[in-house]
Structures are given as structure tokens and as C-alpha cells.
């Protein structure tokens, strides 16, 4: 027979996961009931409404590095102080330094860079995208 401490740890992990699944299934059941009530209410106000035709909205999870709106503010601060337009990778590296983010592996750096790029694209008229020597760069809009 196997090691008792290994078996005990595996049993504990299984109990934890099965409890988590049971809790999630309860929550799914409650969300489905809420959705049915909402659909019925929609039909009261608009009898021709087809609730199933309403596309689900994707739920996004927040990263642990930035509060809401913080990344775009920091990016704009970095670009304001920059003497020349900056590439996304350079902005991300400056942000990692200034926030003290432990992005030692390539995956973490890539995720921060992706977050920075998303913030730049959502910044609207605040920043300008330009190509410098074949490289996409950013600067504060004039």
C-alpha cells in the first residue's frame, strides 16, 4: 500500500475540490434561476423580446498589479516624461520598475506588456500611435 501521508493529502485535496465543485454548482443553479426571472421580466415589458438572442458579455478578471484605471494613468505619466516616442516593451519595462512588479519570467513580462498595450489602445485621444523605424511607438497626443 502507498504512503499514508500521501494518501491523506490526496484525500484532503479531493475533499477540497469536490466541495468547491458543489459550491460552484449551487451558484450556477442560482444564476440560472435569476436569468429565468430576468427573461420573464423582459418579456413583460417587451413581449416580442427574444432574451436568448442577447449575447452574453465576457467576464474579465482583474490582474493583481493595477487598480482600476491605474495602468493607463501610469503609462501616460511615463510617456509625458519621455523625450521621444516609446515602444510598448520599453513602456512595460519602465512600468515594471516603477511599480516594483516581480516580473522575472518571460510570461509575466508578456502579461504586463499586454496590459500596457490594452491600456494604450483604450486611452483614446490621450496617446498617439506612430511607427518609428518600423517599430510601433507611442507618445502623448499633442
List keywords for this structure.
4 helices, Arc Repressor Mutant, subunit A, mainly alpha, three-stranded antiparallel beta sheet, 2 domains, flat, 142 residues, 3 strands
| Envelope shape | flat
What distance separates the N and C termini? Answer: 73 Å
Second CATH tier, the architecture of the largest domain:
Orthogonal Bundle
The first-level CATH class of the largest domain is given as Mainly Alpha
CATH topology term of the largest domain: Arc Repressor Mutant, subunit A
Annotated CATH homologous superfamily of the largest domain: Winged helix-like DNA-binding domain superfamily/Winged helix DNA-binding domain
Biggest β-sheet: count, sense, barrel?
Answer: 3 strands, antiparallel
Number of domains: 2
Count of helix runs: 4
SSE ordering: HHEHHEE
Strands in their spatial order, largest beta sheet: 1-3-2
Proportion in helices: 55-70%
Radius of gyration: 24 Å
How confident overall, as mean pLDDT? 88
Derived structural class: mainly alpha
For the secondary structure, the number of strands is 3
